[in-house]
From TrEMBL:
The chain crosses the membrane at residues 268-290. Residues 10-289 form the Protein kinase domain. CDD domains: PASTA_pknB (cd06577). Keywords: Kinase, Membrane, Transferase, Transmembrane, Transmembrane helix. It holds the Pfam family PK_Tyr_Ser-Thr. Signal peptide: none annotated. Residues 335-400 form the PASTA domain. Gene3D superfamilies: 3.30.10.20, Phosphorylase Kinase, domain 1, Transferase(Phosphotransferase) domain 1. InterPro entries: Kinase-like_dom_sf, PASTA_dom, Prot_kinase_dom, Ser-Thr/Tyr_kinase_cat_dom. This is Protein kinase. GO terms for molecular function: kinase activity.
Length: 402
């Protein structure tokens, strides 16, 4: 079928993969021109064509940085064609087969972006259905999830959403097996908790990919790289975005090397700033010594004691959060029920954390000024005595003193 033209626009150039019922080609879109992927579905009868069109329209509605874009579709005779974004790169399966090793930060970053892509699709009521390492394309420090599968996926059913999460857990298990085994064991324990909760081996089991993305981001920003800091704002959890900026990516994976001219310029500016600072400091010291010599010791001491003293305190709000460290027992042996939200007001931070973890609750706390004793919980967002389910997130506030 190579070099075959269809729709007077797409020319099939090279067959990349062949599977039962569908073949993947690199093709040329002569209208722009540009390379595209074309997935050819053969032996499509009238009923299959309708399912194909419905699936293609659903996929075309997905718009996310980590999902490969769908450009076009076409049905001719007994074949259907799906045209999608082209990537000159390897799949995760090919990278793993080539024994590529990922740092823990790289694997966490890719895993978080996979979860964000799946969460976006589920919000649009689109399931993947065949998530695996063959569906993940790697280019540099970025990934794209391909939703083009040989099999036609049924219409949206909530149960299929859970199947995607189970497949995500299996994919993570493959991915993290390619990271250094003894690298930051305390971080790896948290990562394995995420994997176990996706696979159903720990309680509570994940039911939403956005929670997976959030927990991985917490591990990435809080534990995986001590130089990586990200002050989270107290924003509404339903509107929180999980995008990481290019600057944050560079801080995780290493900033690009600066040119020699830029380094010299930066060094010159640093020396210039230090020199100005030293001159100013010398001038202030000279004035102080001159005043000290001209004033009598008794008068000087008196003026210091009577003068107003003010200390400026920076308005800084610190934050912290964690994922639940849930039991390592099989899920069948852990209670499934929830309970009533505890009253955290008046507890010390470690007491509140211990109580929430014992109930299987995830939490985030903020340190803020208040008239309460330092280290005391003085406010919580979720009211006490309201029902909760294990895995729910609680936000509370700890006094940082006046």
């Amino acid at each position: 079928m190579q070099r075959r033209m269809f729709s007077d626009r797409y020319q099939l150039e090279e067959r990349l993969e062949a599977s039962n019922g569908a073949d993947l080609y690199r093709a040329l879109d002569v209208s722009f021109p540009r390379n595209v992927f074309v997935t050819v579905f053969s032996d499509c009868d009238s009923s299959a064509v309708e399912s194909f069109r419905a699936r293609a329209q659903s996929l075309a509605g997905l718009s996310h940085h980590h999902i490969m874009s769908i450009y076009d579709m076409e049905c001719q005779e007994d074949s259907c064609y799906l045209i999608s974004e082209y990537r000159e790169c390897l799949t995760l399966r090919e990278a793993l087969d080539a024994e590529r090793r990922f740092s823990l930060e790289e694997a966490l970053f890719m895993a978080m972006n996979m979860a964000k892509a799946i969460a976006h699709a589920h919000e649009q009521q689109v399931v993947h259905g065949h998530l695996s390492s063959e569906m993940i394309w790697i280019q540099g420090d970025d990934i794209k999830v391909a939703f083009v599968c040989p099999q036609v996926i049924p219409e949206w059913i909530p149960a299929h959403k859970q199947e995607d999460l189970l497949a995500l857990g299996k994919l993570y298990k493959e991915l993290f097996a390619a990271t250094p085994p003894l690298y930051k064991p305390e971080v790896r324990e948290k990562v394995m908790e995420v994997v176990d909760r996706l696979l159903g081996a720990r309680h509570p089991v994940y039911t939403d990919a956005s929670d997976v993305a959030y927990d991985l981001k917490m591990i990435l920003t809080k534990d995986a790289n001590p130089l990586y800091t990200n002050q989270l704002t107290n924003e509404d959890e339903h509107t929180r975005t999980y995008e990481i900026t290019r600057a944050e990516i560079q801080s995780l994976l290493g900033a690009p090397k600066q040119s020699g001219l830029r380094k010299i310029r930066k060094m010159f500016l640093s020396y210039f700033a230090v020199s100005i600072g030293m001159l100013l400091l010398g001038a202030v010291a000279s004035l102080f010594l001159a005043n000290t010599k001209s004033a009598a010791p008794g008068k000087l001491q008196s003026s210091i004691e009577k003068g107003p003293i003010s200390v400026a305190k920076a308005e800084v709000t610190e934050t912290s959060s964690t994922i639940t460290i849930s039991p390592k027992e099989p899920i069948a042996r852990v209670g499934q029920g929830g309970g009533l939200m505890p009253d955290l007001i008046g507890l010390q931070r470690h007491e509140a954390e211990k109580l929430l973890l014992s109930l299987g609750l995830r939490y985030q706390y903020f340190l803020e000024r208040s008239d309460k004793p330092a280290g005391t919980v003085f406010k919580q967002d979720q009211p006490p005595n309201h029902p909760f389910q294990p895995g729910d997130r609680v936000i509370f506030y700890i006094s940082n003193g006046k």
